[in-house]
Inverse folding.
């Protein structure tokens, strides 16, 4: 259990997107955030109070959460001085990065000396099974995207919230470090060993009440060559009854892949549905979630209306418009 | 990288099938085998010279490879005396068994004391990168299947051999335990952490001569819900220029999944090609490999002819007919 509240560490984030972990925690659990810590050159800003370590400790912070990701998920050497000082100041550390706090000898030694805890939420703590492919009771919805980082976690958190507000039975199922940091539970899918990926998602979304929905956070994209295998495992391990398509319209190319254009929403719809039907022939696409953060209000509304007309599916930006229409579409299934 | 040549350890194999890993090494890389080591009661015989450890060392052996599998894939206590003596004699050990050489305290201690290496080919020995998706020089062909265990390794080993016999530049790229033991090198893909799967295949098939072919061993199937993510990573990490479709016609259902029927070869062709084109728009399907081990000679020939006519692609069982026609199809690309 990670102690709250947090000081969110943004490090030397080169852009706002690099700090999406911190952004997610701030958006979904603002009550857990006392402030943000930014290093020189940091290009991300959550709008929280900038705090030093001592100030954060005085304000009640219990844990410094690394809310920024490098490509490859490494703990940067340039962060070390801050992380060591945070431990010495009396803060625990929490991280969802690939290389582990507990594997850094300097951090491990200082944590031990100061009696602090190092939380690596990415480390799988379960021996997941190999997927059986057997049908499970209850309903599942999965977010699939045209690209990485297009808003799949936001969408599923918002849908879960909207469903519960509508009196439906719903559980958000985290599959990434931010979701796990927010909910305290989930599968760190990108750190799971290949053979057990689909099995870990079966484990995460077990038999449930017939009217209960697991709202499964998506990862990667079938069209993102670095991470498509992870997406595939979610589609087959999740056995979704419903898919929500996620898109960010202003991307020039696939994230981290300058040579790759984004697919159309239609291409993601068709390919995802075909693959999902292998595990669940009844699967349907129920709606579209557009991430309009780089668009003005009118432009966003116009874009969503255009997609809604084109695909014949409820289309919203859950952040701007709420996810009630997506929840309604699921309730109608 | 496992040092060759090998002494093949057949242990106390109860029958020939138990030594199928050793058989594969002997069949595909006879030049890597100086001899075989058989314990009392061993019922397998590869037809290699029986050698003691000292004799094998004198004959140039660098590594004793455990080419036999017990029920449960365990390292037998009765083998330990030989394994320890092999290390003391100056041989490395290599194994693809479930439980690891390096987890056996006695073997680890002797290896350390003698300065020898323990190669557990189920465990990745490399920190693979995240896939960049960048185009690489040289050509690549990947085997994709309707199911697991339909003959993808056999097909790619045979195609590699046929290409080299035809004077083409070709390298078999192993992605599973047996393939790695055969060639001494490769990626144990099913044990790679999710985020690095595609990157490990990029690492395995780097830039090469424009007329060089990497022949990539396939794994799983896009239609096998337990392992489809692994297959996906091969398709996107491998960036294949060519696909070979592999099928075993007598399966009643997907391996290990009684509720799942096999897809048609056409379904595998269409889905694999669509996905492969994301990473390599020029990718083509060049041929079909049928595993006819459960069919008679006439039935096998008839089946292959029928598929060849239906799909308009060269169709062979590489075990019965050789892989020359598949190599020709690749040469013609």
């Amino acid at each position: 259990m990670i102690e709250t509240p947090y000081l969110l560490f943004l490090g030397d984030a080169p852009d706002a997107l690099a700090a999406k972990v911190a952004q997610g925690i701030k958006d979904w659990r603002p009550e857990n955030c006392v402030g943000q810590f930014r290093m020189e050159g940091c290009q991300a800003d959550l709008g929280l109070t900038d705090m030093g370590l001592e100030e954060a400790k005085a304000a009640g912070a219990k844990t410094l959460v690394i809310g920024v990701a490098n490509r490859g998920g490494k703990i940067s050497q340039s962060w070390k001085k801050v992380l060591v000082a945070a431990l010495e100041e009396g803060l625990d550390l929490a991280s969802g990065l690939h290389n582990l706090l507990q594997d850094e000898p300097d951090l491990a030694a200082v944590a031990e000396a100061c009696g602090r805890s190092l939380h690596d939420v990415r480390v799988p703590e379960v021996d997941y099974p190999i997927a059986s492919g057997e049908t499970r009771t209850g309903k599942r919805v999965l977010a699939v995207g045209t690209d990485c980082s297009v808003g799949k976690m936001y969408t599923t958190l918002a849908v879960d919230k909207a469903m519960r507000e509508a009196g439906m039975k719903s559980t958000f199922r985290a599959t990434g470090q931010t979701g796990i940091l927010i909910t305290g539970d989930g599968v760190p899918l990108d750190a799971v060993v290949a053979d057990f990926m689909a099995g870990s998602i079966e484990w995460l979304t077990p038999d449930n009440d017939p009217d209960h929905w697991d709202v499964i956070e998506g990862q990667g994209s079938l069209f993102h060559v670095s991470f498509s295998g992870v997406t595939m495992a979610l589609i087959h391990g999740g056995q979704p009854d419903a898919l929500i398509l996620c898109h960010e319209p202003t991307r020039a190319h696939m994230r981290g892949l300058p040579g790759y254009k984004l697919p159309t929403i239609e291409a993601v719809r068709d390919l995802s549905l075909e693959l999902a039907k292998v595990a669940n022939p009844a699967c349907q696409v129920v709606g579209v979630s557009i991430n309009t953060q780089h668009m003005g209000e009118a432009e966003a509304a116009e874009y969503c209306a255009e997609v809604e007309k084109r695909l014949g599916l409820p289309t919203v930006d859950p952040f701007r418009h709420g996810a009630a229409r997506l929840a309604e579409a699921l309730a109608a299934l």
In short: The radius of gyration of chain A is 20 Å. Chain A touches chain B at residues 71-73, 98, 130-135, 189-195, 197-199, 222-223, 225-233, 236-237, 254, 256-257, 259-260, 263, 271, 274-275, 278-279 (CB under 8 Å). The first helix of chain A runs from residue 20 to 28.
